[in-house]
TrEMBL record:
NCBIfam families: PHB_DH, PRK12429.1. It comes from Paracoccus laeviglucosivorans. SUPFAM superfamilies: NAD(P)-binding Rossmann-fold domains (SSF51735). GO terms for molecular function: 3-hydroxybutyrate dehydrogenase activity. This is 3-hydroxybutyrate dehydrogenase.
Length: 265
């Protein structure tokens, strides 16, 4: 039986957590007792509302780090902030990510560099900074939010797919390094998740392709997901929460799909 407050006294850092999946994960970890460092983009007043809401809803402490995932020093400072405010970094969730779609021979160099930096280099720097705190505590959980594209590819997403395959390799390698020290490292691989960002893309796709809303959802967005259902943020958040529990202590180095059967083909 997993305690309902099994992360009480522990600290979680969640990147890209001012909206979408990251915010869902931050709230899930706060819900099982963790103090939380949130991070991400957005209007300052809105971010403060989110931060205060997490703290009030779950009776934990929640602070905000403005760390820019393009800047390694900012990432180190974010982990240092968790340590100075809460005494360590017990859970690290690397969730921040960006996407750009173009043929490989037309892919802008600046987009390539930014995607590589945010999707792959930033998790590396965060892990590097957090692992010493986890080793000192003899316990830690690292969760990398990858994608179904860590397991399969799609055209016109060469850089994004490369970074997500890279995250799978980073996950496995670090898991082997720290396996004997009470630290687990896993990657969650969502398919299409129903987020405000995905929903906002539907009208443009309808217009560009001359399709109905239902056609965009079923024949474009969910074409690869046999369930024909979006993954829900709460499902991903619950999965992350479970991976932080003692019930998941022997799950490490795993690349774990949560994508409605997409990669079962």
């Amino acid at each position: 039986m997993i305690s309902s407050n099994f992360l009480a006294g522990k600290t979680a850092v969640v990147t890209g957590s001012t909206s979408g999946i990251g915010l869902g994960v931050a709230r899930a970890l706060a819900g099982v007792g963790a103090n939380v460092v949130i991070n991400g983009l957005g209007d300052a007043d809105q971010i403060e509302t989110i931060r205060a809401g997490i703290a009030a809803d779950f009776g934990i402490r929640c602070i905000y780090s403005p760390a820019n995932m393009l800047q390694p020093q900012d990432i180190r400072d974010m982990i240092a902030l968790a340590a100075s405010e809460f005494g360590g970094c017990d859970v690290l969730v690397n969730n921040a990510g960006i996407q750009f779609v173009a043929p490989v021979d037309e892919f802008p160099d600046d987009k390539f560099a930014a995607i590589m930096a945010i999707n792959l280099a930033a998790p590396f720097h965060a892990i590097k900074a957090a692992v010493p705190h986890m080793k000192a505590a003899g316990w830690g959980r690292i969760i990398n939010v990858a994608s179904a594209h860590a397991l399969v590819a799609s055209p016109f997403k060469s850089t994004y797919v490369a970074t997500k395959h890279g995250i799978a390799g980073l996950t496995k390698s670090v898991a082997l390094e720290v396996a004997a020290q009470g630290i687990t490292v896993n990657a969650i691989c969502p398919g299409y998740v129903w987020t405000p960002l995905v929903e906002s893309q539907i009208p443009d796709t309808m217009a560009a392709r001359g399709l109905t809303r239902e056609q965009v959802i079923n024949d474009v967005l969910l074409a690869a997901q046999p369930t024909k259902k979006f993954v829900q943020i709460d499902e991903v958040a619950a999965f992350a929460g479970f991976l932080c529990s003692d019930g998941a202590a022997s799950i490490t180095g795993a690349i774990l799909p949560i994508e409605g059967g997409w990669t079962a083909h």
